[in-house]
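Per your request, structure below.
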């Protein structure tokens, strides 16, 4: 360590070098051990303690682990294993509690490849328990072993009171540790309940029959996690009812070495997979630690599945002439796979154990998987044909999306310089986005009238030419091939939100790039106008839903009636308004249905629809998004049966509208 001499002198000499000792080795540099000094590092320190209990349980000592998340942020971990050996160690000439709790690189798992103790262990480096103790504000330990109860207490890495040993009052064995991560070490120690739920569920999945009990004092919640059949039970839980194939379970054990001059070690692994066009998931575990970044097992799965499925597709003649080879992305889109491997020698990338890089593990898993997949395809031709068809559908969908991505990206580019790139769009003069209004109007005739009736300083006009595409039913490629839609999206300027695994590159929505303070839909008050309004709203709902949640979308109400009394003209937007106006007029008056937007005089259009002082705007509210989605699905989606039932039940309410037209 280089000593900081700032403010004293700038000498760099023999006395400038210092060594961290004891708890400082972790407390001053927690990121070295835990990967970070934020909430992620704190979470990893918690897992280090729980992982020791898991190792004991996997060795066959205690099948139940209890974790309590206390209201003050401390955690208690209880196991029923053999209990940590803490008495005097004649070989090391120290107490074991000093080695385990106060010395880095001390533990009982270094010789796991040479004997039967802790062969497949999460903790291999002798760092976890000591480093977690060093990083705690306090740690209170009770150990039950050999008929005794041992007690230890630590504060900020220092032992207080030594080891206390007394005869146990019960015959149990195991370890109880309560500790509080230190906010002087970690920037954030408020570990959410969701972390414990996710972590313990994952451990239950890959440790068949092991019971994890989680108690949360703050909420009073108690949860139990146990998968008697491990990854097979988890796969059965998450796949859809109409999955493409039934789950396939594979197990294998072998020995090998990472390099010719290194000793052999044992490897065993289990893998369950199936294909599903509604669910996709690939998770990898090693020695029960979740490999967030995969490493060797991940590479093995990718290599084996691509090789085996590519060979089957070639043999079946499913590739078109000069068609590119499939990629793992095409497979992964419909693959549900859980891999759980164990080895007596493990090369983790670092202490956080998020990836492994054993060469032998990768090669052994790849070879075995290739062979088993080839056998499976031969013995299960119906399933193999289904898999091949789905993978090819994924592949071609991805390629189609990639082909259209570049051209669509240009079409959807925002900014203020769009005047010449959207047909018949009429811009306004101001660049002040807080004032700018975009009127989406129905057709060329309405555009002409609105153009003459608007305030050109802050009101722009975008005509919708004919009935817009139903965006709820159409796929993205068809949507983005529609000039009306792409012109409108381009004028909006904020991009689109694309909820599609093959359209992720098109997901460019940014509310800050919206060119308008208000987006106003302005159509005639008739069936065709209502239809166009609904289609525009559907488009905004699917492609730019945040415009609705941010309350940027409005509907301009057009008057239903013109009531003329002498030189005065009144406008009524509802029948009730019409009746109220007529009741107040003294003398003769004439009522007529209001004309379409394109037939109105500019002055009238300005007064009724565009003048902020006299117009009526309906704000499209986001409160009932679920109800909106349900209605769009019924009226415009593929639910034909639901639409028929809706019309049968509610259709009479809309007959009056048809009569008026």
């Amino acid at each position: 360590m280089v000593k900081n001499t700032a403010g004293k002198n700038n000498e760099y000499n023999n006395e400038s070098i210092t060594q961290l000792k004891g708890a400082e080795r972790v407390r001053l540099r927690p990121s070295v051990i835990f990967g970070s000094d934020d909430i992620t590092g704190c979470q990893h320190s918690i897992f280090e303690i729980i992982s020791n209990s898991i190792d004991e349980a996997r060795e066959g000592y205690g099948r139940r682990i209890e974790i309590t998340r206390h209201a003050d942020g401390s955690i208690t971990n209880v196991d029923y294993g053999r209990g940590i050996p803490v008495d005097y160690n004649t070989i090391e000439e120290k107490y074991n509690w000093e080695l385990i709790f106060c010395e880095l690189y001390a533990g009982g798992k270094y010789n796991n490849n040479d004997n039967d103790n802790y062969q497949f262990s999460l903790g291999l480096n002798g760092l976890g328990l000591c480093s977690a103790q060093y990083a705690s504000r306090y740690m209170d330990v009770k150990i039950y072993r050999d008929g005794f109860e041992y007690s230890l207490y630590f504060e900020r890495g220092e032992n207080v009171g030594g080891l206390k040993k007394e005869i146990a009052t019960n015959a149990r064995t195991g370890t109880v540790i309560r500790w509080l991560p230190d906010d002087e070490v970690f920037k954030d120690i408020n570990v959410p309940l969701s972390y414990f739920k996710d972590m313990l569920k994952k451990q239950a999945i890959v440790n068949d029959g092991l019971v994890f009990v989680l108690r949360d004092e703050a909420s009073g919640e108690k949860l139990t996690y146990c998968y008697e059949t491990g990854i097979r039970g988890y796969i059965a839980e998450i796949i859809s009812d109409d999955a493409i194939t039934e789950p396939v379970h594979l197990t294998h054990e072998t020995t090998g070495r990472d390099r010719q001059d290194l000793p052999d070690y044992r490897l065993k692994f289990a893998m369950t997979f199936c294909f599903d066009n509604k669910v996709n998931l690939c998770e990898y575990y090693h020695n029960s630690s979740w490999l967030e970044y995969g490493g060797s097992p991940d590479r093995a799965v990718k290599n084996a599945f691509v090789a085996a499925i590519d060979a089957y597709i070639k043999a079946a003649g499913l590739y078109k002439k000069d068609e590119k080879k499939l990629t793992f992305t095409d497979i992964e889109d419909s693959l549900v796979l859980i891999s759980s491997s164990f080895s007596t020698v493990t090369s983790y990338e670092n202490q956080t154990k998020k990836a492994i890089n054993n060469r032998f593990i990768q090669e052994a898993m790849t070879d075995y998987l290739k062979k088993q997949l080839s056998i499976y395809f031969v013995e299960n031709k119906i399933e193999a044909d289904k898999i091949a068809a789905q993978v090819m559908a994924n592949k071609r969908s991805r390629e189609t999306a990639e082909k259209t991505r570049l051209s669509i990206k240009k079409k959807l580019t925002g900014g203020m310089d769009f005047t010449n790139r959207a047909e018949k769009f009429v811009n306004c003069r101001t660049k002040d986005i807080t004032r700018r209004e975009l009127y989406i109007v129905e057709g060329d005739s309405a555009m002409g009238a609105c153009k003459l009736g608007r305030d050109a300083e802050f009101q722009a006009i975008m005509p919708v030419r004919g009935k817009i595409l139903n965006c709820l039913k159409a796929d993205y490629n068809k949507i983005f091939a529609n000039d009306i839609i792409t012109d409108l999206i381009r004028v909006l300027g904020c991009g689109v939100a694309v909820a599609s695994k093959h359209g992720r590159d098109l997901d460019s929505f940014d509310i800050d790039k919206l060119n308008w303070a208000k987006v106003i839909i302005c159509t005639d008050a008739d069936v065709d106008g209502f239809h166009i309004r609904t289609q525009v709203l559907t488009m905004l709902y699917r492609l730019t839903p945040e415009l609705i949640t941010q309350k940027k979308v409005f509907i301009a109400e057009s008057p239903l009636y013109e009531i003329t009394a002498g030189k005065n003209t009144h406008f009524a937007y509802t029948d009730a308004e019409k009746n109220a106006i007529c009741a107040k007029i003294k003398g003769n008056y004439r009522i007529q249905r209001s004309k379409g937007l394109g037939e109105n005089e500019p002055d009238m259009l300005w007064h009724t629809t565009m003048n902020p002082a006299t117009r009526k705007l309906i704000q499209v509210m986001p409160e009932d998004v679920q109800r909106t989605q349900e209605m769009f699905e019924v009226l415009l989606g593929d639910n034909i049966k639901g639409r028929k039932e809706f019309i049968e039940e509610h259709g009479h309410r809309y007959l009056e509208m048809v009569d008026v037209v």
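Confidence is low (pLDDT under 50) at residues 1-7, 108-113, 118-126, 656-661.

Regards,
D.
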